[in-house]
Write a structure and sequence with these properties.
Strand 4, helix 4 and strand 5 form a beta-alpha-beta unit. The longest helix is centred in the N-terminal third of the chain and has 21 residues. Helix 8 crosses helix 11. The chain is built from eleven helices and 14 strands. The relative contact order is 0.13. The protein is an alpha/beta fold. The protein has a domain of 200 residues: Rossmann fold. The structure holds NADP nicotinamide-adenine-dinucleotide phosphate. The site of NADP nicotinamide-adenine-dinucleotide phosphate has 26 residues, from helix 1, helix 4, strand 5 and strand 7.
Amino acid sequence: MTSPIALTGASGFIGRSLVQRLTEGGHSVRVLLRRPDAELEALGVDSLQGSLDDAASLRRLVEGARAVVHCAGAIRARRRSDFTAVNVAGTARLVSVAAESQARPRVLLMSSLAAREPAVSPYAASKRGGEEALFREARGLEHLCLRLPAVYGPGDRATLALFRQLNRGLAVLPAPLDNRFSLLYIQDLVGLVERLLQKKAWPGTTVEVDDGRSGGYAWRQLPEIAAQQLDRRVRAVSVPPALLWGTATASEAVSALLGLAPIWTRGKLREFLHADWVSRRDGAVDLEGWRPETQLQQGLAPTIAWYRRAGWL
Ligand SMILES: NC(=O)c1ccc[n+]([C@@H]2O[C@H](COP(=O)([O-])OP(=O)(O)OC[C@H]3O[C@@H](n4cnc5c(N)ncnc54)[C@H](OP(=O)(O)O)[C@@H]3O)[C@@H](O)[C@H]2O)c1
């Protein structure tokens, strides 16, 4: 039996897809879960109960592992300190435990293009902090940090609202239509991770990835792409920022009253108002010949079809 690949965040969008790919590929996978998950168990993983807050569970996770893929993260939180606790302190704890372990597994961090602009939002700052924690705590461990653009595809709840709108034929966008961003289809991402796990050495650096579309997408291009794929008319309107600030402030206030972690916040709005979330690929970093295969023209229809089958649309 080969030593396992240890995974955090297996119950999330990216982690779950990755577990599926790795188990299908015959890899032995160990996951850290905060709650039991029958779907993951059915894939034959070795599951451990624990969390990023609990160093003892992290020690069990990395024991004898050959690699750690750190997919856990907070993408919404009630306050800045909650983002920091998971994305910075949790990453630091995991990497430190891995560095102190006998196995000394290599560590792959799922970071975000948001880390490029830490002043934009508490989330962005926490993703940068997580990267810094990786580099600080690795102490000779092989490591790599992937800065992801928006990842989409079957199983994603974060982009569901956008796909729902495109499917209805009217997208009401919280961003200026010329703002640009990169995308990555989930199956291409998990294919990349699988390749990286076979790579001899990781370069201990940060690499930005995307679906290969040079210059990314402008929001105004989305309706045209959706219209071609869905064979219907699709329009997009951009909501004026003044109105958006009001809705974000209201969403934060209502969530605070209900004790919930809001997804729509002033920080999230500042992320949408930022003009450039296009990946800058550093050709010098060898990704084992990885070539993404799916741009939005190919990824949109299967994503919508999956949402329909799952009853999410
Ligand atoms: N999806 C994207 O478009 C995208 C883009 C850029 C970067 N990323 C990064 O990629 C990572 C995964 O994103 P995702 O979309 O898969 O997010 P997700 O669906 O929200 O999943 C987050 C995962 O993290 C786990 N988690 C959160 N706090 C934890 C803690 N304290 N201890 C242990 N596990 C914890 C969650 O477990 P529970 O199920 O127990 O809550 C869940 O498995 C995140 O770090 C995110 O910042 C994602």
